[in-house]
From TrEMBL, chains A, B:
InterPro entries: TR_Rrf2-type_CS (IPR030489), Tscrpt_reg_Rrf2 (IPR000944), WH-like_DNA-bd_sf (IPR036388), WH_DNA-bd_sf (IPR036390). This is RrF2 family transcriptional regulator. It comes from the Bacteria.
């Protein structure tokens, strides 16, 4: 998984703490964690295409959350950044080579792909079951002053 | 995940069907599914380092299973080929940049890493719970003639 997922998740939490009324430029979100701005911008654009953040143009432009953290799951962010493909991609090698049976003679799903798919499903179920608001709650228990620090740093001059 | 995982899983099943008494060269295992031999050899070497297959040198050399399929889990093969790292790697960006708190002030685990870790754990649990023998059983239900076809094709001339 790319580091873009970690960056996107932290940026969503930061946007929530900053507040939904303000759009924040990618460069500013990147500076807060010393991340490369162009690459974080790419992740934020992916979040915008997925409807997780809204991209606002103009001098006061930037990104803001498109909906509440309680309506964004970990799966939403992972799928937005990494794409919808499964981690294990079956390329049907059972149908390749001298041992291959006649076309059309294969069960719908290779037993190996099925087994790997069950694991992927368990992973996705867990990602779907956790919202960013659950994560925010735990983060605030760990670091009660973080939201205030973030709001202050991002406050308009 | 690399295609090496799919290739390694199929190769383990093929080695089981060929039988534990014979070592099979990587090139021959690769030819059966029209795979690039050098790359499959790399995966088989990784399986050998993990103790899943045994590498036999000499004119009758090659690879054979080091233990029964009922003692090889999907997790064993994935870890052998992909390495032990988690798919989501937390790089602790919360501790980078102007908003970072004093060193040592952080909870043991970032709430984001914890949430992503729970999903990874669900994935790994499912991979650990399935042995290659479970997969072999289902494959044979789907394709009852596959084991015999494979034994015939790999039979010594």
């Amino acid at each position: 998984m790319s580091e873009g997922v970690e960056w996107a998740l932290h940026s969503c939490l930061n946007l929530a703490w900053i507040g939904p009324e303000r759009a924040v430029p990618a460069a500013r979100l990147a500076a807060y964690h010393e991340l490369p701005a162009a690459y974080l911008n790419k992740q934020l654009q992916a979040l915008a295409r997925a409807g997780i953040v809204t991209s606002v143009s103009g001098p006061k432009g930037g990104f803001r959350l498109a909906r509440g953290l309680d309506r964004i799951t970990l799966m939403d962010v992972v799928a937005a950044v990494e794409g919808p493909d499964e981690a294990f991609r079956c390329t049907e090698i059972r149908q390749q080579g001298p041992g291959a049976g006649p076309a059309g003679s294969y069960a719908a799903e290779c037993a190996i792909a099925g087994a790997m798919g069950r694991a992927e499903l368990a992973w996705r179920r867990e990602l779907v079951s956790q919202t960013l608001d659950d994560v925010r709650e735990r983060a605030e228990l760990q670091a009660p002053t973080a939201p205030e620090r973030i709001r202050e740093w991002f406050a308009p001059a």
